[in-house]
Amino acid sequence: MSGAEVIGIISGVIAIIDATAKIYNAANDASGLPQAFRDVATRLPLVHETLQTVSRHLNTSNPDENSCKAIRPILQRCENRATQLEKMFKDVIPQADASRMERYLLAARSLGKGATVESLMKGVLEDTQLLASSRVMELATEASIAALIRRAIEEVSAIPSSLPDGIYLSAVREAERDALLKELKWTDPTIDKLRIERTKGGLYEASSSWILSHPSYQEWQDGETNKLLWIKGGAGKGKTMLLVTITKHLRSQTRPDYHGASSSLSFFFCQNTDDRLNNAVAVLKGLIYLLLVQDVSLVSYLKSDCDRMGKDIFDATNNNANAFDALSNVFKQMVQHPRMETLYLAVDALDECENGLPDLLNLVRETALQENRLKWILTSRNRVDIDENLALENPGAKLSLEVNAEAVVQAIKTYIIRKVAEVPSLQSSPVQRTSIQQKLLEKAEGTFLWVDLVLRSIRGVLAEDAVRRIDETPPGLLPLYDRMMGDISKSASSYRDSCLTVLSVATLAYRPLHILELRTLAGLKYETADLEKIVDMCGSFLTLVDNHVYPIHQSAKDYLVSVTAVDKIFPSGKHTAQRSIVDRSIAAMKTLRRDVYQLVHPGTLTRDVEARLPTPDPLLGVGYSCTYWIDHVCETDKAELQSSRRYRLANTLERHIAGSKKSIRIRDSIKAFFHNHFLHWLEALSLLGVISNGILSLAKLRTIVEARTDSFTNLVEDAYRFMLLNRWLIEQAPLQTYVSALLFTPVDSIICRMFAKEEPGWVLTKPAAEKTWSRCLQTFEGHGGSVRSVAFSPDGSQIASGSNDKTIRIWDAKSGKEVRKLEGHNSWVQSVAFSPDGSRIVSGSNDKTIRIWDAKSGKEVRKLEGHSNSVQSVAFSPDSSRIASGSDDNTIRVWDAKLDKEVQKLEGHSSWVLSVAFSPDGSRIVSGSDDKTIRIWDAKSGKEVRKLEGHSNSVQSVAFSPDSSRIASGSDDNTIRVWDAKLDKEVQKLEGHSSWVLSVAFSPDGSRIVSGSDDKTIRIWDAKSGKEVRKLEGHSNSVRSVAFSPDGSRIASGSDDNTIRIWDAKSGKEVRKLEGHSSSVLSVAFSPDGSRIASGSVDNTIRIWDAKSGKEVRKLEGHNSWVQSVAFSPDGSRIASGSYDNTIRIWDAKSGKEARKLEGHSSWVLSVAFSPDGSRIASGSVDKTIRIWDAKSGKEVRSVNMGRTPNGLRFEDSGDSGLWLRTSAGSIKLAGGESSSHDSYNITGDTSHMIKPNDQLTSNPQTPFSNTGLRWDLSSDGSWVTWRGQGSIWLPPDFRPGESDISRDGSAIVIGRPTGRVVVLRMSMDVSFP
């Protein structure tokens, strides 16, 4: 490890400390916070100053490698503690309300016992003390700092505990549970149960209460041996109503209905026709939901996993294969929670669980055997697979309704008597009523559903007709369905065709349809009342509940897709019906428009939309179409393939839509829709909360057309890239679809060109985005520290990443969602790799261990120990039998993966081995090292075969391509290089990361390269395509300062690359490059007439440049430390400079002579500014004060303690409200008004009471700044450009500020990036939103 790398880590810690201070300083007040937060915040500048001192020392002393290695563990620990402290501040402080203490409690619990703000701060101070006093630093002249740190540690140690032992409030847990369930949007099984009851005609307990006295049930409820009871029977036998009766009975004896009960009940009712209720993930969500409602103490199990992995880990709608495992892990912890009670778990209709049933049955069996308190009761049809999976040995555990036919018949008899008595035409005809009861009983064959369907058909007829109809009705469900279908087909009603259309659409739909969606997809023009009549005519197959159309029963849906019914409801084939759905969906979605909910403000977040839904909802009738129309395009293809093998998938898009007057091809319809409504569709997906569905469906369409090369294919590909790039943004803020998404997407994007007219007119100067799509396909964000390693799973569907946050995370490669989080290492995870079969993951860490994990469950399987220093890299051999590891002990070791034994030790590198990889055939091992080389070894003999050189810094990661022809390497020089493995030549150089590239890997097909970087991002690159285009990345290092010229036409930027660059503010082009400083340029400023530029640097000098020619005019010397800030006086005759030597100096701008030295600050001066008339100078310092000086005499006029470090000083004259001084720590009203002259400004008066938080000033239209240039600004975290304090333009990570400036008229913002990019945005001061 070099001194530069140590400085890099220290810079990272400083950034974390500064971010923590920024969070505290941005708060309006500290109400609700423990005093410890304030005590800790006041000591953050001391840590900042000490680490800066250490960094300066390292920058000049150039310590040797061994010295740097010695302090690395201290740095790692300090970074970890600082990260936890920042997280705690971020979780607790931002929202000023009564729940701050609750959030603090939750944040502390999530970090573990003893994690309080004061304990973390003490640890950071102790680590800082060790760094400052280490032999490497030898900071003898910094004794005052050492004393300050010692005193700070003593004071922090004396802070009373901010979290007393044992604090755990029930109210906190309930609020936490309610907020979590609301965020997850899980449905309450109780509500679903009530709806299903209504769908099935309601509960009649007299016909189902027999189950409660059945010996098998009583043994299950009260006995000790039978923990699982399976009630099975054919379709329509009344299984659901039996379980409704059972749950009602149990609920009366369990919590919360029965006060003082020690037992609990949780249940779930599956329903095949509703995709929210037909899978194993949904079952577990429902069971967990009811457990949380009854026992709030269980919320910690769900909350911890949700916090670690994100809520999407439980979502199966985006092909997340790990959702069930994640939920089952939570479920197991809940049922194992210490309690002295019985837990009843009931699941109805297992046969309607379409996805994940085997996993669910295994979980049921496993928990039933292991947990004595659990009692499962299940219902389903007679299915062999369910029987085999449950493997019930006890005969009493199976309750067959066919075996108990006598009880079922008696129950049906009771049911018939009750239901027949409700038929109006039979109430006055006792003889016919008795006759009908007998006929129904004889024909029912033990099936409740058959009775219910027949009674529905006679409800509105006369008694004589009722008898005749029953006589003509065949026994058995299937014959009955045939009869009912025949009745519809032969009907003379004008609604007959509409009925058949409704049946076809309901059969093909992926979920129950709202009545308005049904009208859209069926192409019917009827009013809602008529539509309801049509659904009622289909009453043998469909039912209407809460304005949604459901199949009457699973057996009805089974019949509708059977061979018998297909010819009747799909007379022209399913493909024709699918095409009609596509055609009608596209037609309906043409009604979509921009801002369909009339949100107006472009920064409105989806979470705020719920409270302002318009009535009626314009998306109510097109919601299904928006979500599933592309899925129906794909189903159209399947139907074509089934009807004729000649047609391939791409040809489907060429064929004509049956029934269309103009025979418009589907591909042309899609193209026209995208051309006019693509952005409107994305907005609708966001408002509907189904952006992920849109991405997955568009991926399907992309697969359909990818074999072709034409304008349509290019459009689909471009649309897909647009969605991937902007997915997170559009999901959070729908109207940013037309703002940020268009502004920052590559300018040559087809979608961007197509919708150029939609770009916000109030953005006058757009940021210079990339010209074309870069090779980076996606960026994943989520780790709490640098990403050290990444790897594709063998099938390319997942990516594993290891980080300084000590975790391994697994991501879905297609959607970018986090799937799982693996924890166990107690230090940085340096390397991760999948086994060739994808079943295991191996990781190497700074804790000197190698760990093997089960990729599906996330459990640790094995730990390998032997290296004497950090393990930097790990890799499986192609046959999974061996693991190679590279370490800071300069060796590569090969291990037997099964026996945990070391097999071989390879030596040769002269420094740390940072990366190792096997070739695909296992014959070679490639390694990358801190010695800047890549070496290839013979895996059998251990001999070095080849050495590759070219990187200018440490090689952090290496990887073979699948065909062994190429090697990819990632380095601390921020690049990825691709090498020809045989010719030893560099083939390609990939640039884009803004910090060290710590890991690289090829995708299984070799077409993509994934890289992880110290910039905390993971990037996916196309391994074949052309170079990336970057227009504004002129600087080769971080931009430290930016400034507008007085007229706003030019921008100056100073950088760590030691240069100043001048840019055209309108075009974004670099105009001139100024060179002369020997170190980083920290500050730049234009003279009032724009003819000169002043710059301050780490080389302790100020330089004056001619802005037109770029020539250096003068060099000002005098400061004995870094010059952090420079400013011209209003008349341009003087320059003020602030320095790390704690002084402000005033210079004659013409002669370059020092005119005056201002002393008084006790720490670094970060910012200086002249008052509008030039008579005063304001300075801000790390000592938390702002001092105002008389510019002529040099005397200090006033000192204001801001309570936190002020920076970015700027005077603002608002006319009628007087003179204000704006700073990062708040704004001060000095004095004056419209009638006052500058000479009368009373800046010697008491100003402390006039300090105002900046967010109040920028968001309140009545403040003095509402009429100045402060309406456009940047949010505190730099992620939004704000208008009056509300986010208006979201900034992607690559465009967020390192440094920034606002033009004098307040309309333009310039942003300097650590990558060297300079971004300019100019906005109108006259906007149409509030």
Strand tally is 59
Walk across the major sheet and give the strand order: 2-3-4-1-5
Give the N-terminus to C-terminus distance in angstroms. 53 Å
What does the average pLDDT come to? 82
Would you tell me the structural class of the helices and strands? alpha+beta
What would the principal axes of the Cα set say about the shape? globular
**Which regions have little confidence, pLDDT < 50, spanning 5+ residues?**
639-651, 653-664, 1026-1033, 1233-1250, 1252-1269
Tell me roughly what share of residues is in helical segments: 25-40%
What is the count of helical runs? Answer: 35
Largest sheet: 5 strands, parallel
The rounded Rg comes to 36 Å
Quote the beta fraction. 15-25%
Explained architecture:
The protein is an alpha+beta fold and 1330 residues long. Helix content is 34%, strand content 24%. The chain has 35 helices and 59 strands. Helix 31 (691-705) packs antiparallel against helix 32 (711-732).
Spell out the blueprint of helices and strands.
Layout: H1 3-26, H2 35-41, H3 44-61, H4 65-92, H5 100-111, H6 117-133, H7 143-157, H8 170-184, H9 189-199, H10 215-222, E1 228-232, H11 239-251, E2 264-269, H12 280-294, H13 299-309, H14 323-335, E3 343-348, H15 357-370, E4 374-380, H16 384-390, E5 398-400, H17 405-420, H18 430-444, H19 448-458, H20 463-472, H21 477-490, H22 496-508, E6 513-514, H23 515-522, H24 528-537, E7 542-545, E8 548-551, H25 554-560, H26 563-569, H27 574-589, H28 623-643, H29 649-652, H30 666-688, H31 691-705, H32 711-732, H33 740-744, H34 750-754, E9 763-765, E10 776-780, E11 787-792, E12 798-803, E13 807-812, E14 818-823, E15 829-834, E16 840-845, E17 849-854, E18 860-865, E19 871-876, E20 882-887, E21 891-896, E22 901-907, E23 913-918, E24 924-929, E25 933-938, E26 944-949, E27 955-960, E28 966-971, E29 975-980, E30 985-991, E31 997-1002, E32 1008-1013, E33 1018-1022, E34 1039-1044, E35 1050-1055, E36 1059-1064, E37 1070-1075, E38 1081-1086, E39 1092-1097, E40 1101-1106, E41 1112-1117, E42 1123-1128, E43 1134-1139, E44 1144-1148, E45 1154-1158, E46 1165-1170, ...
Parallel strand pairs: 1-4, 1-5, 2-3, 3-4
Antiparallel strand pairs: 6-8, 7-8, 9-59, 10-33, 11-12, 12-13, 13-14, 15-16, 16-17, 17-18, 19-20, 20-21, 21-22, 23-24, 24-25, 25-26, 27-28, 28-29, 29-30, 31-32, 32-33, 34-35, 35-36, 36-37, 38-39, 39-40, 40-41, 42-43, 43-44, 44-45, 46-47, 47-48, 48-49, 50-51, 51-52, 52-53, 54-55, 55-56, 57-58, 58-59
